[in-house]
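Tokenise the fold.
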Amino acid sequence: MKDAPEAPRIGVPVDAMGTNQSGMRAHNERLVLTLLRRHGALPKSEIARLTGLSAQTVSVIMRALEDECLILRGEPQRGRVGQPSVPMTLNPRGAFFLGLKVGRRSVEMVLTDFLGTILSRRVHQHDYPDYDTVLAFGLEAASALVGLLAAEEQSRVAGLGIALPFEIWCWANAIGVDPEVMIPWKHRDIRQDLSDRLTVPVFLINDATAACSAELVFGQIEQPSDFLHFYIAFFIGGGVVLNGHLFQGPTGNAGALGPMRVPDKAGKICQLMDIASLSTLEWRLKAEGVDPAGVWASPSWCDLPEDIVADWLDEAGAAIAHALLRALAIIDFSAVKIDGWMPAEVRRDLTRKVADCLAQQDLTGLNLPDIQEGSIGPDARALGAASRPLLARFLVANLR
């Protein structure tokens, strides 16, 4: 890993339209790659039409991307007249990305290809995220995962993204550990420590925002231009997409839905995270004498008592609906997506409960959004972390 050449860094484009001016080649390449990612195979003529670039400019870009192994040439498609059309697609093995998810109960790193397919992963469960242990895991996992690639592919690893709860040292009491053991997270910089030891760019993003990024980048092709994203893990969090962009705010903490004040089933006002988080489900299982390890061992939640899960779902659904009602008073979201570390059928039930509870609220002056299931699931935070170097180097900012 340390001997791999450093990936070049490319500036962020300022708009989503093509230009034929020299000096904008990096932007135009990103634009072409983004179109291929969104639409799949496209011939040069269609790329020229969609971008507004000249046919000559598109040909130059396609040759350059093909030379760099970023795109593949398909079989010629013969039409009625003229030369056969040659579709171009992204090369899945044209670039690779690492995504590190640091959670309260586990740390995980994934290796993805250019299309976002997870090729392999490394996971370590813990009672709490010890800084030095997480750092050592990150270095060892990165080396092991990159080592799975062919020698000529290892230089195509374009970066590492880290999905981390911001101000993680503040959560010591919530995860049941001495606050002193979390202090290193306050005074040390995991992004910098990994960057100093690796030869690829390293990025940091809030873990719930990362889950939203995964939905935006790797989710359904046709996404709403604006949506609010809830992600349920140890704590519930969120993300915001506006005009096709992931909106992170000045501190990177936009969409921090967990602290939002909502009523519980008795009408008492408390934080959303105290009702709709998996830590609450964990606490309820312990109170009933049930080992909660099954919550964290696998997102399939094997052998968890159905009645306890059902009660948690009822209260979580109502709480999320109240939080959504407040959010809609600020931004007129056209859609809401609900995802998390949970089985698909539980996510489906939770989404339905949120929609049912919201429909019962007084929506005077507000528009009812489309309540949808998220499409990524338990891998959202790790995939969202991996999406950061992908966005930084290869795609335009606005994906829609």
Q: What stands out?
A: The two ends are 34 Å apart (CA to CA). The first helix runs from residue 25 to 39.
